[in-house]
Amino acid sequence: MSKLYKIALAGEGGQGVQSVANILAEAANDGGKEAIYIPNFGVEQRGGVSIAYVQIDDKVIGSPKFKTADIVVALSDRSIERTKRYVGPNTVFIYDSSTLQAAEIDDRAIGIQGVEADPRSQRPTSLTDDEAEFTATLPTNAKAVIGIPANDIAKNELHPRVFNIMILGAVIKATGVLPIEKIKEAIELKLGSKFDAKPELRELNFKALERGMNLVDKVL
């Protein structure tokens, strides 16, 4: 039976949510599915909240817009506020529970394209350190609310620039919308030349993808 997956992803400009959405849509299309991807960068561009809307189905998708999502991913406090409108009783809400600095990634990039770290490319996370206050900002009407320390893991175990690839892994595991092989193929198409020049980047990106998958259970 065909299932329509409705996904909303949001974060600060530079956290790579558009990259995640783009890869999801391309992997779905390459896998013979229908996919719609609509980016919304906000009026502030890189200083504002970046939102991406993705729909994936086995059949033609009737409308490019939706009122409630099956899964919402919010990577900052501002994005939590911006995405609450898409949460309903069947929505799984995933947020970044890290308290370290957020990795900044060009929205045009997919994962890590170089291993050189520039501390100027990082900005402090906007999530509050007051856990009680922050928890109060989370939606209360969702099917499930899941916090994952993606930034912490990316920075301490892998590399800050693969933060968005970890989020991608969490999304595909939580939804089961696409097999990991299709996602890897889509990443390979985007970064194949980079991987050929530096094979270690392929291993790092794919490790981040699998690490993100291990952070969540299938919930849809």
Automatic annotation (TrEMBL):
<dbReference type="GO" id="GO:0016903">
    <property type="term" value="F:oxidoreductase activity, acting on the aldehyde or oxo group of donors"/>
</dbReference>
<feature type="domain" description="Pyruvate/ketoisovalerate oxidoreductase catalytic">
    <location>
        <begin position="13"/>
        <end position="213"/>
    </location>
</feature>
<dbReference type="InterPro" id="IPR019752">
    <property type="entry name" value="Pyrv/ketoisovalerate_OxRed_cat"/>
</dbReference>
<dbReference type="InterPro" id="IPR002869">
    <property type="entry name" value="Pyrv_flavodox_OxRed_cen"/>
</dbReference>
<keyword id="KW-0560">Oxidoreductase</keyword>
<dbReference type="Pfam" id="PF01558">
    <property type="entry name" value="POR"/>
</dbReference>
<protein>
    <submittedName>
        <fullName>2-oxoacid:acceptor oxidoreductase family protein</fullName>
    </submittedName>
</protein>
<dbReference type="InterPro" id="IPR052554">
    <property type="entry name" value="2-oxoglutarate_synth_KorC"/>
</dbReference>
